């Protein structure tokens, strides 16, 4: 297994544990990691049940685990492609399948927030989730 795949699997396990410990019912969870440079990074976490999207609270112990893993993944991708990603969106579902989407140029791409729903930068297709009222 490549280092990229090992890191992604480990991050998926952390996200799955975070979501499983949440009292919210869910069928998918999302982690968006933005790091335009190595010294500054931010996270967003969301969970989804059907078409309803909710903020997923993330205690610091999870971001403390995921931050170094994401930076290691970005380092690995820079070694492979000579370009460093600026953001990643990791998705895990209740069946324990996961996927990772990387963006190398646009720090505003793949927004997972409720405010971004229905915009061209949203990670979600327009009919994939309900817009909040």
UniProtKB/TrEMBL annotation:
Give the highest taxon in the source lineage.
Bacteria
Q: What name does UniProt use for this protein?
A: Uncharacterized protein
Protein's organism = Undibacterium umbellatum
At the highest ranks, the source species' classification is:
Bacteria, Pseudomonadati, Pseudomonadota, Betaproteobacteria, Burkholderiales
């Amino acid at each position: 297994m490549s280092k990229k795949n090992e890191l992604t699997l480990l991050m998926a396990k952390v996200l799955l544990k975070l979501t499983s410990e949440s009292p919210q019912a869910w069928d998918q969870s999302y982690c968006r990691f933005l790091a335009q440079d190595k010294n500054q990074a931010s996270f967003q976490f969301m969970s989804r049940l059907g078409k309803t999207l909710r903020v997923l609270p993330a205690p610091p112990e999870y971001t403390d685990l995921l931050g170094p893993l994401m930076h290691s993944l970005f380092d690995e991708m820079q070694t492979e492609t000579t370009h460093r990603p600026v953001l990643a969106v990791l998705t895990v579902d209740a069946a324990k399948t996961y996927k990772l989407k990387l963006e190398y140029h646009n720090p505003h791409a793949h927004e997972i927030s409720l405010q971004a729903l229905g915009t061209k930068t949203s990670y979600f297709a327009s009919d994939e989730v309900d817009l909040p009222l």
